[in-house]
Amino acid sequence: MRAMKIAVVAILVYMGIVTLFESSIGYLQPTPGNTLVITTFDKAGVSHDRVVSRLESDGHLYVAANHWPRSWYHRALQNPDVQVTMNGSKADYRAVPVSGEEHARVEAANRLPFFFRVLTGFPPRLFMRLDPRQ
Question: Which domains does the chain show, CATH number per domain?
Answer without folding.
Answer: 2-132 (2.30.110.10)
